[in-house]
């Protein structure tokens, strides 16, 4: 591998001059600068970012650690974060915890070793231990898609999932349904709990008992888990007329299971998802969904992290930003139940 000493030897200058050409070109005479740059191009020299980070104490890489890289919602979050990062000359490293606190902890060690600039994280660990380790390793972070209990813990950017759950349930109740099923991922995830809480609040507002909302809990938040939930729905007695899913991937899996069984959506069962990913509108029956501003969440979170780790870090104050969801009504939920 070509090193900086090779460039200096070939160009007939000192290592310090090569370093200045790379990092402070305005300090080097034009003739010398041109000669060194030509040698760099000829030899194919690429500076060692990791070594530079060790000297400077600051990386140009932001890590984004998400629950499920396959979920288009997190792809939109990543797009927003990348947009903000690129405007500041930074890059984003995307990592997947697969909803595993253990994998999240492993990535923490990697981030510490690589001395990343900071981390945008959707926590898989609900105990707070991993976030405490981030603080102990002095790694700046912003929590995405979850609100922190206190701004003293750090910055967070989230959506009001209680309101989102309420929007979904109110919509189904307005269509005439009086018993709902909530298809959820792991209930230890705050997003799943909050959406359930919002749905229960809508039932209370309508004067309905809490047991009017039955729940199916899956181990994951993906299409396969949705298909499994759909099979369980078909075995329920009485069969529900309305289903609210904790995300769109679950809803798409439920839709597949219902179609395979010859159940009409929305004629027999109305269906609402959450996130409003691109696939929701393109489903066989366009899916009603609670939209989260995912791109804005990612961009806002990255902006906060860049501010916290930038030149004005001393003036930074932690913020808890909570964005509002929006119900997008499509064909999957708009007919009244059959009696």
Automatic annotation (TrEMBL):
Origin: domain of life: Bacteria
Coiled coil regions, renumbered to chain: none
Keyword annotations: DNA-binding, Transcription, Transcription regulation
CDD domains with a match to the protein in the record: HTH_LacI, PBP1_LacI-like
HTH lacI-type domain mapped to chain residues: 2-56
GO function terms (MF aspect): DNA-binding transcription factor activity; transcription cis-regulatory region binding
Entries under InterPro entries matching the protein: HTH_LacI (IPR000843), LacI/GalR-like_sensor (IPR046335), Lambda_DNA-bd_dom_sf (IPR010982), Peripla_BP_I (IPR028082)
Pfam families, per database record: LacI, Peripla_BP_3
Gene3D superfamilies hit by this protein: 3.40.50.2300, lambda repressor-like DNA-binding domains
The protein's name: LacI family transcriptional regulator
């Amino acid at each position: 591998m070509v090193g900086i000493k090779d460039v200096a030897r070939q160009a007939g200058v000192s290592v310090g001059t090569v370093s200045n050409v790379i990092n402070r070109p305005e300090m080097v005479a034009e003739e010398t600068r041109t000669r060194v740059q030509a040698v760099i191009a000829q030899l194919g020299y690429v500076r060692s970012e990791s070594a530079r980070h060790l000297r400077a104490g600051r990386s140009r890489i932001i890590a984004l650690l998400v629950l499920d890289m396959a979920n288009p919602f997190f792809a939109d979050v990543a797009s927003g974060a990348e947009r903000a990062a690129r405007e500041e000359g930074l890059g984003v490293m995307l990592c997947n915890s697969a909803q595993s606190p253990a994998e999240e902890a492993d990535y923490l060690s990697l981030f510490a070793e690589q001395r990343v600039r900071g981390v945008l994280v959707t926590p898989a660990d609900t105990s707070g231990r991993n976030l405490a380790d981030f603080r102990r390793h002095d790694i700046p972070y912003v929590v995405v898609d979850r609100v922190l209990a206190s701004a003293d813990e750090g910055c967070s950017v989230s959506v009001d999932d209680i309101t989102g759950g309420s929007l979904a349930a109110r919509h189904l109740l307005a269509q005439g349904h009086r018993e709902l099923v909530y298809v959820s991922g792991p209930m230890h995830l705050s997003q799943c709990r909050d959406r359930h809480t919002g749905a229960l609040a809508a039932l209370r507002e309508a004067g309905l008992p809490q047991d009017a909302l039955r729940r199916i809990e899956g181990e994951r938040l993906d299409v396969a888990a949705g298909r499994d939930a759909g099979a369980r729905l078909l075995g329920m007695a009485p069969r529900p007329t309305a289903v609210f899913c904790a995300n769109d991937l679950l809803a798409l899996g439920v839709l597949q299971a219902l179609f395979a069984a010859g159940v009409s959506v929305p004629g027999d069962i109305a269906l609402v998802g959450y996130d409003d990913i691109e696939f929701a509108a393109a489903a066989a029956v366009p899916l009603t969904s609670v939209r989260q501003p995912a791109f804005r969440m990612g961009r806002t979170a990255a902006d906060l992290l860049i501010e916290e780790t930038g030149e004005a870090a001393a003036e930074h104050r932690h913020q808890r930003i909570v964005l509002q969801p929006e119900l997008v009504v499509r064909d999957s939920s708009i007919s009244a139940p059959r009696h």
